[in-house]
Amino acid sequence: MKQLNLAVIAILSASLMGCSQTPTLPSQYYALGADDLVVAAIAPRSRGTLVLKPVELPDYLNNSGVVMQLDDNQVHIAEQHLWAGALNQQLDRLSNEAMALHLPQWSVVESAKFYPESGDQYWILSISVNRFQGRLEGVAVASGRWNLVAPNGKEVKDERFNYQLDVPSKDYPGIVEKLKENWLTLSHDIALQLNQAAQ
C-alpha cells in the first residue's frame, strides 16, 4: 500500500512538473513612437499657444493589453500584446509631438506643464476617445470627440471623429501601426481646423 501511494505521488509530481514547464509565449510590447515622427507642417495662417489637456480613455482601453473587438458586444484584451506604457500617456506624447510638427509657429504645451499668467492668450484642446482598437476582420478603429476652446473661453469646435483603416495582415503589429496612423490623421485634421479658426 505504501509503495502504491509513493507511485501515485511520483506520477502526480511528474505531471505537475510537466505543467509548470509548459512554454509560455513571449510578450510583445508596442510603443506609439512619438520621438521619430515625420509629418508635414501646415502652411502658417496663424500663431499662438495651444494647451493640450490629457487624452481621456474609457477604463477598458487604458489597460496594458491591446484591445481587439470581437463583435458588437465583446472585446478581448490581449495578454501577450501589450502597450509599452500607459496608453493615455502615449497618446498625450504623440499628440504633443504631432501638433508641434504640424504647427511649428505655435507653442504646444501639455496642460500639466502650463502655468498661465494674467493676460496670456491660449487655445485649449481636449480629446476624448471612445474606441482605439482592432477589429477581428482586420480593421483599426480610432473614434471619439474633440473640442477646442478659444482664448476668450468660447468653445469654437466640438467635433466627432471616426477613423478606420484596413489591416491586411490582421495581426497585432499591423493593428498598432494603423492605430498610430489614425491618430496622426486626427492630429493633422485638428491642426488644420485650429490654423483656420485662429486667423
UniProtKB/TrEMBL annotation:
InterPro entries: ABC_trans_aux. Coiled coil: none annotated. PROSITE patterns: PROKAR_LIPOPROTEIN. This is ABC-type transport auxiliary lipoprotein family protein. It comes from the Bacteria. Residues 40-191 form the ABC-type transport auxiliary lipoprotein component domain. Pfam families: ABC_trans_aux. Keywords: Lipoprotein.
